[in-house]
Design a protein that fits this description.
Length: 326
């Protein structure tokens, strides 16, 4: 499969959650807040919005609650230009995810409400209703596998995407609070990784799948050798290691004064894929993804902080440049 060729077509079906984000003004602690800003959140929705802002096309497959929060999220997806034809509504006591997080680094607090999460109700029927031939690649983030029926539905989406000739792009995105146990998470995420053509995760996530953080880099290397075409092993301030086409390359980051720690991974994925789609070589695409991550952590919000092409170019022009890889 020509994975990069498919990415260059820049039409993505993104499977996973959308949620509502509430965040106070910069530097204000949650317990002291008098007002919040509201916008869209959720890893998969953020990635989709980031891709669209950078010039690509993306549609989301998920479920939202039949209430004002669910309607807020669908409206926001539309405002960002993300396709919503496969965003289904679920009734009853299921609720769209709500995230409250502070725009500060020191003492940062975030609170996630995901009891009875609506997105976990995504069904096999939902993913079977997607016309995969309309898209060039499938993207998902790991939280979608944390519960049923969403887990089985996403694995079914993998099968259907593969049958349609689409590469599978997987952001490990391990969130312990969403899973019934660490053992279930390790087994399921490892299975998803083995089925994926592009895998992006940090050193903790690869280490978790390997059963030991010290073995995470070897796990990434093994996946690149046995099944995946591209593996990006992120190491925070130490940069990243990218495995592709039999090579192993290290890259630095763009240091910035961060306002918050959230949204970096989603923005990296959007920037990385969009850069490959625009014809940039692998090394440049990874660095541009890192630049997108740096832009987002320096601004409030997640989806609203995602850069457009002009934002990204201005950042690259004005910044002194990436750190040397370690």
């Amino acid at each position: 499969m020509d994975v990069i060729g498919a990415i260059k077509k820049n039409r993505f079906v993104v499977v996973g959650r959308v949620g509502m984000d509430l965040f106070p003004p910069a530097g204000v602690a949650m317990e002291d807040v008098a007002s919040f800003s509201a916008d869209m959140g959720g890893s998969s929705a953020n990635i989709a919005a980031g891709i669209v802002k950078l010039g690509g096309q993306a549609s989301l497959v998920t479920r939202v609650s039949d209430d004002a929060v669910g309607r807020f999220c669908v409206k926001k997806l539309g405002e960002y230009g993300v396709g919503t034809q496969h965003v289904m509504v679920v009734g009853g006591e299921h609720r769209t995810s709500l995230a409250l997080y502070e725009s500060r680094i020191e003492g940062h607090q975030s609170v996630i409400y995901r009891n009875g999460a609506a997105d976990f109700e995504m069904s096999v029927q939902d993913v079977e209703a997607v016309e995969y031939s309309r898209f060039s690649a499938l993207i998902t983030a790991g939280t979608v596998f944390a519960s049923e029926p969403s887990r089985s539905a996403t694995f079914r989406a993998f099968e259907l995407a593969r049958e349609a000739g689409l590469p599978i792009i997987f952001d490990v995105d391990y969130r312990p609070y969403s899973w019934p146990s660490a053992q279930v998470a390790q087994d399921v995420l490892s299975r998803a990784g083995a089925l994926s053509d592009v895998i992006v995760g940090n050193d903790d996530e690869f280490g978790f799948m390997a059963g030991d953080k010290a073995k995470g880099l070897d796990m990434a290397r093994q996946l690149a050798t046995t099944s995946a075409s591209i593996v990006v092993y992120k190491m925070g301030e130490q940069g990243a290691v990218t495995f592709h086409d039999g090579t192993e390359r290290r890259s630095g980051i763009y240091p910035v004064t961060a306002l918050k720690p959230t949204g970096a991974g989603d923005s990296f994925m959007a920037g990385f894929l969009s850069s490959l789609a625009d014809g940039h070589e692998m090394d440049a695409a990874v660095l541009r993804g890192s630049a997108c991550a740096a832009i987002v952590v320096a601004k409030p919000g997640c989806a609203p902080a995602m850069p457009n092409p002009e934002d990204l170019q201005k950042f690259l022009t004005d910044h002194a440049g990436p750190t040397e890889p370690t």
